[in-house]
Prior knowledge:
- The structure holds 2 protein chains of 2 kinds.
- Helix content of chain A is 42%, strand content 13%.
- By secondary structure, chain A is an alpha/beta fold.
- By secondary structure, chain B is an alpha/beta fold.
- Chain B contains 12 helices and 20 strands.
- In chain B, the strands form 4 sheets. Chain B has an 8-stranded parallel β-sheet with strand order 8-9-10-11-12-15-16-17. Chain B has a 6-stranded mixed β-sheet with strand order 3-2-7-18-19-20. Chain B has a 4-stranded mixed β-sheet with strand order 5-4-1-6, with no helix packed on it.
- In chain B, strand 13 (192-193), helix 6 and strand 14 form a beta-alpha-beta unit.
- Chain B is globular and about 65 Å long.
- The chains are: A alpha/beta, B alpha/beta.
- The interface between A and B is medium-sized, with 30 and 24 residues.
Amino acid sequence: MLALSTAQTLQLNDQGQLRHYLSIDGLSRELLTEILDTADSFLEVGARSVKKVPLLRGMTVCNVFFENSTRTRTTFELAAKRLSADVINLDISTSSTSKGESLFDTLRNLEAMAADMFVVRHGDSGAAHFIAEHVCPDVAVINAGDGRHSHPTQGMLDMLTIRRHKGDFSGLSVAIVGDILHSRVARSDMLALRTLGCTDIRVIAPKSLIPVGIEQYGVRVFHDLAAGLKDVDVVIMLRLQKERMQGGLLPSEGEFFRLYGLTQQRLALAKPDALVMHPGPINRGVEIESAVADGAQSVILNQVTYGIAIRMAVLAMAMSGQKTQRQLDQDSEV
Amino acid sequence: MRMTLKGARVIDPASQLDQHVSVHLQDGHILALGNAPTGFTAERMLDCSGLVIAPGLVDLSCALREPGFGRKGNIASETLAAAAGGTTSLCCPPFTRPALDTPAVAELILDRAREAGHAKVFPLGALSKGLAGEQLSELVSLRDAGCVAFTNGLSQFRNTRVLRRALEYAATFDLTVVFVSQDHDLADGGLAHEGPTAAFLGLPGIPETAETVALARDLLLVEQTGVRAHFSQLTSARGVEMIAQAQARGLPVTADVALYQLILTDEALNSFSGLYHVQPPLRSNADRQALREAVRAGVVQAIASHHQPHEGDVKRAPFGATEPGISSAELFLPLAMTLVQDGLLELPELLKRLSLGPAQAMRLSAGKLGVGEAADLVIFDPQATTLAGEQWFSKGENCPFHGHCLPSTVRYTLVDGHISFQR
């Protein structure tokens, strides 16, 4: 495993608390557990008739999405609103950059509007790091997906889903199936699972969809779905983008489904109480058949609900860590 | 002007001279080594005690950015930067705007370089018009205008047949072709060496085969056409192995590596810093070791700066949105001296890779320190250090070595006996 010390120092304040949330990499088991525990407590907020807590009252959260997304942006918006923040949604893919403004300038402008927190999705790997390091280090930056690199709130909502259904990570077998190569979700899941103590992580895909150097994640690689699913506790299916058929990665959706699609018959190879997860949006009949997606073992919609709680937890923790850091900086100046 | 340089250790790889002698210069040439000829009186005496005098460095790739990219650099700024790095002769690649595919552009560059007077400039012409890989440039006219070799850089030819024709035409006139072998399709969209670092960072990979597949094709075409060939910017262990094999079976090909490839690896990318974004990419530590070994063994004859200056803005972006390249011409000697510091090369061998080797690869008369040769010299203090970035002449703000304390410091650079830089 590569030691990304910069990711660690960027994300944490001088007291080791979260101040940006960019990647699972560099976060300790204790910190990930704190995120899960905090999210657990926020789940209860979502169940109330008045679904608000005042943690971020008076704060402005900017959702800055350079790539389209419905689910992630909406759940971030809901999370921020349940924390009583003001929320601005910016769909940049249709505005500034098409006029030639650089990411740097776009973010600096938003910072000048006194935003307290940026939730950023961007097509370039490392975009959130770049913003946190070089553009606005004093504004909490939450990574809502950067290229193929990281999608750390999805990673942790997957962990919350697993923990709520399975209790603990040690002794679990988790299989991640599909397009690992292009998947920021897979990268975040692999890191989070390992940090939280899961010792049997499997990735299942043809060689054309597995990145060179996957071994560093401490995973076992399977090219055969049946062998990979044997006795697993959790199956995480990944979305297959239609553009993967171009460029020779796969012959067709049909052949992919034949070889790697999750059917009831194949799910039967896993443990009887195995969970079926998917980050969404699902392609029915491409990576998963409807009977499984809608079946008793599917927790795909639970993931969406838990996603709001995870995002509330991360927003609240990063804002608090950022405030603490500002206080520390002020104290050291005095 | 008659000048005597006294007290230095004088190293000339061409004649294997390495001793303390005086160097006497007259009318831009080296008049004598050792005792002054009878009747010679120096107008200027330079005390060089404790310093090393060597042939001025010959840099096979130093982008000057003029014409067309004034925000990144210009001929005056970048040749001064090169002089500060100990360089007296440099080749500039044809990636200007317009591309260096007409004699007019070559003449403009040569005129401005002469006007600036910091270093001798030898342009590389575009092998195809506009580097588009469709139609040949007027290679002979470009040669007559001063181009010493021709390259298409990383731009691909429309197909292998057109490339073959280009090589045949170049071979007809004994022109040198500089290859940067990278298969366009295998590298397409890639940002980093395909390996654990790229996988971890989610950066699209450029496989080693992007280099080796193209290199195999290029070597076979060189063999078939008999063109004089130089392979530039090798990055991989397999790549230098293929060059060594070709040389072993008698193919007279030469090669260079970028100096930064001998120092950095793809692990430098792990903070997503765009300063380390280069093309072809930084590769693994095993590749770096093999490149260093190939330089030591002489399979790779030349080390080049591959200086690519950029304005700060183009690196102020997420990794994938930055433009590739490192600005390092003015650290050429001090960065290269780290190879001596690391015990890879003895000083005379290093100087050979930085002067005589590259000069021979491009058939330049530079790189020698003998009686009658042009007085193109670098005079440096091997014991002192250079704080990278303390002085900065290049317009390129993209240097990942800033703040590093590097071995040696260039005291004087002389071009035709004139001091083009001193510190």
